[in-house]
Amino acid sequence: MNEPLLELCGVSKRFKTFSLENVSFSLPGGMFMGLIGPNGAGKTTLVKAILGLVRPDAGEIRFQGRDLMQEGAALRQRIAYVPDEPKYTTGVRLRTLKDVYAGFFLTWNEARWEGLMTDFGLDPAKKSNTLSLGQRTRFALTLAMSRDAELLVLDEPTTGLDPVFRRELLQRLSSTLDERRSILFSTHITSDLEVSADLVTLIRDGEVVFSQPQDVIRETWGVVKGGIDLLDADVKALFVGLRTSACGFEALTNDLEGARGRFNGHALVDRATLEDILVLMGRRKTNA
Amino acid sequence: MLNLLKRDLKLHWCAMVLPYVIVMLVMGAIVISNPDSALAVAVTMGALVIPFLPMAIHLRENSQGTLADLVALPGSRKALVSLRYIEALLFSAVMVSLAHLDTWSAQSAAAHRFVPFDVLDRTGFALTTMPLLICFAYPMPFTLRWNGKGLAVAFAILYVLILGIIGLMRLFPLKEHVGYSRAFARFVMYLMDHPGQATSGFLALFLVLFSVSYLLSLKAFSSREF
Amino acid sequence: MKNLLEIRHLNKNYGSFALQNVDLDVRSGAITGLVGANGAGKSTLLKLVLGLLPPDSGEIFIFGQDAMCDSIALRQRIGFVQESPTLYSHLPVRELGRMVASFYPAWNEAAFKRLCSLFELPLKTPFSKLSQGTRMKTALALALSHDADLLLLDEPTSGLDPLVRREVLELLLEVIQDENKAVLFSTHITSDLDRVAGHVAILKNGQLVLAGAKDELLESWALVKGGEELFSGPLKDRCRGGQRTELGLTLLCEGAEGIKRLLPSDALLERPSLEDLVYFHGREPEAPCAH
Hints:
heterotrimer, A: 288 residues, alpha/beta, Rossmann fold, 2 domains, 6-stranded mixed β-sheet, 4-stranded antiparallel β-sheet, 11 helices, C: 291 residues
């Protein structure tokens, strides 16, 4: 099967204060894709569009080659979703919430769920309203991971989760990947993605800035740090993002090799981390 | 659909369904233990307000933030709307049966002063369908589109309409020495004398209005975003 | 350079959980980061320092004074941000500013305004209607606007995107440019600690399992990667945490110098990242690591 597992083509959605414009990217089977971007860039809207919670004004979303907007009801059997800040009906035990959830899906692994509940430190007899946000997120993860879903979509699941748990979660998630299964993981903690993500899509101000494999990103994007005196109009034009301070400047380039050559000896040129790219690119497009 | 019904029962049993059941049972006990009271009648009438329950469940899901989860499940929005309509019919059927039992047991002279039970029996269908229409079918599309505020608006509109009708009745009195209430009483007598026509009339009205409500609800919910 | 906060042998028993014998110093002119799982005791520790909870035993000295003496002047020099801040939620940001200002004589309205615009805070929206991230930014703006000498922040960057996190961290760095100020903040995001923390402390199950200057810590620990035979060697006594993966064994070992001699030839020696230190100290060790 050569078609990607998930494909977005020209997805647009207009809200009063914000809009998604012409978002396109694809997620092949067997890949872990990180979705990053500033707050308000549209990551959650995108995720909601995939889950049918929001209807795009234009564009297509295809899952396994089929139109998600038309056939979402059936296709969601194969998609597992962990929402941002999961909420559950109050006064209901986790065990009951699980029974309700499992009843909707054809694939459900009870043994795996019990194992995950233990590993994540959750008691099935507890009631949903006694849990903290971190615990509710862990619970949502146990539910999503106890199915054999082909696409796992996680919207900011790691806020409030400690580094030990996060590392182990990412390892666990990575181990579930096979040619049929993929993961879409939206997060603000970009350092988590550096190790686990195969692909990274950056959304800013409602648009896709790039959607590339990590190794390509590592070879393309760089950070240049140097003294203010180096900054003239020509130099500025080379950069995609720039921050200046009293001591110097920090700039983002999408031509790492070129920058290395040009600034050799005059400034520090290093591979950009995902966080560097986000911070230096800024929240909105200002200039090209 | 069965999944969805089971889900509602499991999630909302304690907070919503059980209280209603308890209240119904208590009301039933009142009626049975004291069938001669007008209270029994009032209580029985109260049972007919059950059609609010599916809407109340929907509003609870909305306010607790679990409605989005419901929509993200593998199933269509149409199924979710149908769920509420099926629940409304189911709950009404159960409650109306119980209410009927109550009314039969409450047939006493005292009760008869307040409600003519023979009228109830014959216009029973009207009595069960009217609450369904007023408490559920009418406000549901508003609620699906605009939640709690929608519900309030729906009843505000209804209130204004009723005031308007009363106003109109004042403005345009019927022919002399025929008041509206007289006309209405004549209408009710007609229905009682022709129960077959009354029942089929109400049935037709109910089916039409219920279906219109269903279609409006489908439209209202399909465009809702989360 | 002095210790603005000193915690000595602090104990607090909470029934199912207990802080045990915690010793911690927060030096002026520096940022100290506190890491640990939820339930490890970070919030409890901060509450004890703030005087919101009485300790069972031990001492806390703030600005050299016993914190238990409960002086108002002392508290006015402390700025804090609590986890999931639920300040008077019906008030809008502007009113919150006025309210908090009344408690602190050193309130700086200009600084508050600057922070509000930096964080793009909606001044008229009630606090409860704000998103998690905006609430956090509001709490930070309030804590940073009265020239506090000691800042105690419980997960101040939780839920914030990298851009805002960077702004917050840069603000904290600005604060400690003044040698008489200090910051203690707890976080789950180790990359933030990498960026600004001079000192790090790791809490696990109520105990401080590691504390010290970040650079020193990174130099004195080593990450060793190899096969199963690593466990049977003399490394066993030095190793503080380990993990088995399909590729083999990874151990975190103490005493980077001298370790090279003890390694089998095919083992890899690496400098750990802060994240590695936090990870291996934070989890339950797999099999025979000492400790």
